[in-house]
Amino acid sequence: MEEFLQSEEYATHAIALLEDRGVSLEDIAECARYLQADYHVDLRTEELLDSVKKVISKREVQFAIMTAVELDRQAEKGTMVDKELENLVESDAPLYGTDEVLAYGICNLYGSIALTNFGFIDKKKYGVIDRLNREGKKKGICHTFLDDIVGAIAAAAASRFAHRWER
Amino acid sequence: MEEFLQSEEYATHAIALLEDRGVSLEDIAECARYLQADYHVDLRTEELLDSVKKVISKREVQFAIMTAVELDRQAEKGTMVDKELENLVESDAPLYGTDEVLAYGICNLYGSIALTNFGFIDKKKYGVIDRLNREGKKKGICHTFLDDIVGAIAAAAASRFAHRWER
Amino acid sequence: MEEFLQSEEYATHAIALLEDRGVSLEDIAECARYLQADYHVDLRTEELLDSVKKVISKREVQFAIMTAVELDRQAEKGTMVDKELENLVESDAPLYGTDEVLAYGICNLYGSIALTNFGFIDKKKYGVIDRLNREGKKKGICHTFLDDIVGAIAAAAASRFAHRWER
Amino acid sequence: MEEFLQSEEYATHAIALLEDRGVSLEDIAECARYLQADYHVDLRTEELLDSVKKVISKREVQFAIMTAVELDRQAEKGTMVDKELENLVESDAPLYGTDEVLAYGICNLYGSIALTNFGFIDKKKYGVIDRLNREGKKKGICHTFLDDIVGAIAAAAASRFAHRWER
After folding, report:
1. B3: left (phi > 0), else alpha (psi -120 to 50), else beta?
2. What is the ipTM of this complex?
3. Nearest Cβ partner of D63 from B64, B73, B97?
4. Is D163 on the interface with A (CB under 8 A)?
5. C-alpha span between B26 and B32 (Å, rounded)
6. For the segment C75-112, what is each residue's pLDDT rounded down to a tens digit?
7. How far apart are the CA of C59 and the nearest CA of chain B, in angstroms?
8. Residue among D127, D129, D74 nearest B89 (CA)
9. Is residue D147 within 8 Å of D136, Cβ to Cβ?
């Protein structure tokens, strides 16, 4: 064992996990566009796609995606060892909070604007985040970690875009 | 020198600074109420006041308030040594970001819900935060740090309230 | 479902998980004492025990413990869905980093001194943290998340003690 | 007013501030080397210099340096409006903590390894950090913020180096 993938292979793996869970890079770029719309009215989703890809090219983001999807899947399948934890994750308990902790691990890499963006989109539940959140309430589907991770990637991509635009 | 105040004396000092800059504890409690309104429709501002006071009873919060007000005042009076910094703070440059870093130092003490609350109210600019933000655009007035600190205290107080309510 | 435990029940549950994984509250208190030893030479482990219990009485700490132990156990048993993630966690890959992200979720609640304490003890690997780290290298045993969580609780308890002592 | 510098101009400005306060980029690179020495015994200071420069090329790092130096200088000159704050900063009060909050704003941009590195070097006080710390105890000299900012840049540069090395 102990043979690790290359960083680009982890990126491919993480993107495949997102797609398997129903989230495309375009979905995330559209959330990032929404976050920037106040500042750039005419921005198109495609213009944010590159920032989304750059965010996902970071190792810590790839590992956060993998960990988040694993926890959602284990809760969904009912295969967690700790049934109290499974109950919390499966029902997206409002004070659980560990899902947001993982998300902040992504936002922090893109500075304070990314954190502010995340707080906003997490409350507004725009686009794919809203869809994930609603689907996750159905029996046998759990997106407790994923909706926060997607929000964090969008928040980070929007922050990255804002910083580059200023230059 | 090197004689420090007691923690309660710093609390009194920090509250006096806030009032001197035009912010009452009730103003902050009203922002905290707004953040909780989705979950508790009938909540009254007074019910959040105790949480606001508890947040300000923490030393790190007191020191963040003192540091924030100092930087605003120095920018306002034009007495900073570094005129590039003075320009950034005085004009509330959107990508400055250090004001939010100080604010996160407060939110972090109250967990991930406080961080999410902060991101939301920072974008919505509710109540006193909106007033500070508008006043700060006038010549000779600077609230670049203060509006974020006030948002952070409100976000922390709302998170504290939510955690206690659940018990 | 959706019947959650009371906060004290989660505390009992989290402490039982720690003990099941070979970590006593005294082990953690001894790490906290080590962190404070420069400032209080005569401090005894028992004096830190109350701080350790107070840290674990916080809901977000309980949930972090539960999540960390779950991920370690799944890696240990080889029951993760994502085998790339399992490989990373099982071998404690140095750049994985999500274990530290969870740990910082605990430290942040106790301010900047807790974060500094954590960085120090994480590198020094004192006491039970060293033991967990060495045991975790054996085949079939995984403490990738647990050693960081234990370090974070010790760091938080030491910070809490330092703040109270000053008063 | 409201004419901001370009990002490269802020970098030049921030580096000049560091040098004016007695810190060279080589001093910081040497701290970063120390942090990586366990993993790469033969590493030379020059090899870390590029990472230090890259860290300082980030806007949020430049602004943190500027804010930190301003607060140290105001405390040094005795020109703060708030004399309680001046006393805390001038005497580097151990529980002040806002200096570390600013430093974490830098570390967070480079992930969890940077945070761990910072905690370690902040306690060990290696190289220029030790010198700043000792000098800052003299009457009329204040490095309360600067030593943490320097530690954070070194911690971030070491983390950046570690991540690139693995690729």
Report:
1. beta
2. 0.95
3. B97
4. yes
5. 10
6. 999 999 999 999 999 999 988 999 999 999 999 999 99
7. 8
8. D74
9. yes
